[in-house]
Write a structure and sequence with these properties.
Mean pLDDT: 77
Helix content: 40-55%
Strand content: 5-15%
CATH class: Mainly Alpha
CATH topology: Arc Repressor Mutant, subunit A
Shape: globular
Largest sheet: 3 strands, antiparallel
Number of strands: 3
Low-confidence stretches: none
Structural class: alpha+beta
Number of domains: 1
Length: 81
């Protein structure tokens, strides 16, 4: 995997790890150390079926959790049981 793709993969991983627990947009931005921008909404970052938004709180779906485990295994971020 090239360094650009690895960096992108780790960015995606970090974003979804910030959503390990349901959180609102300001909490997510704080966890990632980024500024909340009115034009940028987590809706634009959603992949179909990966995030749910209810009452301004985002949470990962079960499908996202399963993908992230496979993703982390493939990158060697976690070890299989």
């Amino acid at each position: 995997m090239s360094s650009i793709w690895r960096r992108h993969a780790l960015t995606v991983w970090t974003f979804y790890l910030a959503l390990e627990k349901p959180a609102d947009k300001p909490t997510i931005c704080h966890a990632l150390g980024i500024q909340d921008r009115h034009r940028c909404d987590a809706n634009t970052l959603r992949r179909p079926g990966w995030l749910q938004k209810e009452n301004e709180v985002f949470r990962l779906t079960e499908m996202a959790g399963e993908f992230l485990v496979r993703f982390a295994l493939n990158l060697g971020l976690i070890m299989p049981r």
